[in-house]
Design a protein that fits this description.
Strand 9, helix 4 and strand 10 form a beta-alpha-beta unit. This protein has twelve helices and 19 strands. The chain is α/β, with parallel strands linked by helices. Helix 11 runs parallel beside helix 12. The protein is elongated and about 110 Å long. An eight-stranded parallel barrel has the order 9-10-11-12-14-15-16-17, surrounded by four helices. Strands 1, 2, 3, 4, 5, 6 and 7 form a seven-stranded mixed β-sheet that branches. A two-stranded parallel sheet has the order 8-13. 31% of the residues lie in helices and 20% in strands. The chain folds into three domains: 87 residues, Immunoglobulin-like (Sandwich), CATH 2.60.40.10; 237 residues, TIM Barrel (Alpha-Beta Barrel); 155 residues, TIM Barrel (Alpha-Beta Barrel), CATH 3.20.20.
C-alpha cells in the first residue's frame, strides 16, 4: 500500500515537470492586451450659486479639478454683475471665487462655463434675488382711489408752464412747519390757521409753497409706505385755504429726515420704489384739484458722502440717482390720470443749485409745456446765511453790507455785488427759456442778523443792504420770467430777533416792512426806494 502511494506521488511530480518544461519551450511570456489611456476629467463644485440682493464682493468659493492640461471660465452672456476672480488654471485642483455685485433691480440669472481640453463643459449657474417692494394688499384702499383714471383736462387751462409764471406773482414759504420731524410744531411755530393764510394773501403774496414731510407719517395701514390719512387731511386743509384766497399752492417732498439724500447706487432702487409709492398716494389724493395746485417732486436733494470737493466734485452716481427720482416722479403722477395728466409739475436742479443745472437730465413728459424747474438762491452765502464770522471770510463786513453799500475798496470783489446776482438769475432764466420750462426760485432770503450788525456798527446799512438784495433778486426774477418764493422759517417774533423769519404768525404781520416794500416795488417795476 505504501509502495502504491509512493508511485502515485512520483508520477504526479513527473507530470508537473513535463508541463513546466513545455511552457518554457513556447518562448517569451505572453503580452497582455493593449490598454487605452484614461480620458481627462473635469469637475466643478458647486455648480449652482444663489445670491441675495446684497451680493457677495468677497466671492462664493468654487473648486475646479481637472486631469487635463488646463481649464478656463467664460461667461455665456455680457453680465458684469457675476464673474470669476480667476478665469484660467492648469491641471490639478484650484479654488476660485465667483464675485456677485449687489442687485439694484429685479431678480436675475446668468451662467459661467468651465472648459478643459477633451473634457465635457461644466456650467455654473448664478441666480440672484431682486429688490422687492411688497405691493399693498388692497391697492384701492392703500392709495385712497383708483390707481389710474382717464385723463381730464377740465379746469387745467391751456397755458404753458413758462407762461403761467407771470400770474404766480410773489410767493411765500410756510417753512419749518409741515416738514418738521414729529409734528408741525416741533420747531417752535404756531398752529397754521386760515387766518394766517388770509393774512399772507393780504400782504400781496399770490403763491404759497408748502414744504412737507411724508415719510414720517407712514402708519402701516394697508401696507408699507402708507401715508396717514389724517396727515393728508391736514395738508389738504391748508391747500384749500390757499385756493380759497385764489392763490397758487405748491406741495413737495421736503427733507423728511434726509430720506431722499441717500443717493448711492447701491441704495437707489429701493429708494426709488418707495418714492413711487409715496407720490402715487399723494397724487391720487389731490388728483381732482385744478391747475393752481402744483406738485414739486423733491427739495434740495444731495448726498454729503458722495461729495469730493463740492460742485462738480459730486460723484456721478449722485446725479444719476437724482435724475432717476425726477423721472419716477413725473411718470408716477402722470400715470394716475385725471387732472394729474395735465398738472404743472416742478422738478429740481441737483441740490437746487443754479451752477449744477448742466448735470440735470429733464424727465420725459407725456404732455407738452407743463413742466417747471426749481432752483434756490442764497448768494452770497456770508451775507445771506452765515451765522457767525469765520476767518476764511477775511472781512466781516461782507456779512452785513452788499453791493452799493460796500465801501469802495470792497466793491472790486464782484461776488458780493449786484453783478453776481444778475449773472446767476440770468443763467437760470436762460436755461428755462431754452428748455421751455417755467422757472421757480423755490427759496431765497437774506436772514436777519440784527444783533450782529448792531454790535459791528452797521445796523442801518445792513437794513438797507438787505432790502436792496431782495429787491434785486425779485427784480431779476421778474425780468427772466421766474417766480420768486421767499423762504420763511417762522422765527420772526420781532425786529430784534436774528434768524430766517419774516412773518410773525401770532400777530399775522410782516416784521421787516422795508423788505416787503422792496419786493412789492420790484414786482410792480418801480425803482428801488428804501422805506419802512
Amino acid at each position: 500500500m505504501k509502495l502504491k502511494n509512493l508511485i502515485y506521488q512520483l508520477s504526479h511530480l513527473l507530470l508537473v515537470a513535463i508541463l513546466l518544461v513545455g511552457a518554457s519551450a513556447c518562448g517569451d511570456e505572453p503580452t497582455p492586451p493593449t490598454q487605452q489611456p484614461e480620458a481627462p476629467t473635469l469637475s466643478v463644485s458647486p455648480t449652482l450659486i444663489e445670491a441675495g440682493v446684497e451680493g457677495n464682493l468677497e466671492g462664493f468659493a468654487v473648486t475646479i479639478t481637472t486631469t487635463s492640461t488646463s481649464w478656463c471660465i467664460t461667461s455665456d452672456e455680457v453680465a458684469d454683475w457675476a464673474y470669476a476672480n480667476i478665469t484660467t488654471g492648469l491641471k490639478g485642483s484650484k479654488s476660485v471665487r465667483i464675485i456677485v455685485k449687489q442687485n439694484e433691480g429685479e431678480a436675475r440669472e446668468t451662467s459661467l462655463t468651465v472648459t478643459a481640453p477633451n473634457c465635457t463643459d461644466v456650467k455654473i449657474t448664478v441666480r440672484q434675488a431682486g429688490v422687492v417692494v411688497e405691493p399693498p394688499v388692497d391697492e384701492g384702499s392703500f392709495y385712497g382711489g383708483e390707481l389710474s383714471i382717464p385723463a381730464d383736462s377740465s379746469e387745467m387751462g391751456d397755458t404753458a408752464a413758462i407762461d403761467i409764471i407771470a400770474d404766480m406773482g410773489l410767493a411765500w414759504n410756510l417753512g419749518n412747519t409741515l416738514e418738521c420731524p414729529g409734528n408741525e410744531y416741533a420747531w417752535g411755530n404756531v398752529h397754521t390757521t386760515k387766518e394766517i393764510i388770509d393774512a399772507v394773501a393780504a400782504m400781496g403774496f399770490k403763491t404759497v409753497r408748502l414744504p412737507i414731510a411724508w415719510g414720517q407719517y407712514y402708519d402701516g395701514e394697508y401696507g408699507d409706505y402708507h401715508i396717514s390719512t389724517e396727515w393728508l387731511d391736514r395738508v389738504q386743509e391748508i391747500v384749500d385755504w390757499c385756493l380759497e384766497n385764489d392763490m397758487y399752492v405748491m406741495i413737495n417732498e421736503h427733507w423728511d429726515n434726509d430720506k431722499l439724500n441717500q443717493l448711492k447706487a447701491s441704495e437707489r432702487e429701493q429708494l426709488n420704489a418707495e418714492f413711487a409709492v409715496m407720490w402715487r398716494r399723494i397724487a391720487i389724493r389731490f388728483r381732482d384739484y385744478d391747475y393752481r395746485l402744483i406738485f414739486a417732486g423733491t427739495n434740495e436733494v444731495s448726498d454729503s458722502e458722495l461729495t469730493k470737493n463740492g460742485g462738480d466734485g459730486y460723484q456721478d452716481e449722485a446725479f444719476e440717482s437724482q435724475n432717476m427720482l425726477l423721472e419716477t416722479f413725473v411718470r408716477t403722477v402722470r400715470e394716475t390720470g385725471g387732472r394729474n395728466a395735465y398738472r404743472y409739475l416742478a422738478v429740481q436742479a441737483f441740490n437746487t443749485n443754479i451752477d449744477l443745472l448742466h448735470r440735470l437730465q429733464l424727465p420725459e413728459d407725456t404732455v407738452e409745456g407743463r413742466m417747471m424747474l426749481e432752483c434756490h438762491y442764497y448768494t452770497p452765502y456770508p451775507f445771506c446765511l452765515m451765522e457767525k464770522y469765520e476767518t476764511w471770510l477775511g472781512d466781516q463786513r461782507y456779512m452785513f453790507l452788499w453791493d452799493k453799500y460796500l465801501p469802495e475798496d470792497m466793491q472790486s470783489n464782484t461776488f458780493y455785488t449786484r453783478e453776481q446776482t444778475l449773472r446767476d438769475i440770468k443763467k437760470f432764466g436762460d436755461y428755462c427759456k431754452e428748455h421751455n420750462v417755467g422757472g421757480l426760485l423755490g427759496e431765497f432770503a437774506a436772514t436777519s442778523r440784527v444783533s450782529m450788525s448792531r454790535d459791528a456798527g452797521y445796523l442801518n446799512e445792513w437794513h438797507e443792504s438787505r432790502a436792496w438784495w431782495h429787491y434785486t433778486v425779485v427784480e431779476q426774477c421778474l425780468e427772466h420770467n421766474i417766480c420768486p418764493m421767499l423762504w420763511d422759517n417762522g422765527d420772526a417774533k420781532s425786529k430784534d430777533v436774528d434768524g430766517g423769519g419774516w412773518i410773525n404768525r401770532n400777530r399775522k404781520e410782516f416784521v421787516y416792512s422795508s423788505v416787503l416794500n422792496a419786493m412789492l416795488d420790484a414786482m410792480e417795476g418801480k425803482p428801488f426806494e428804501y422805506r419802512e
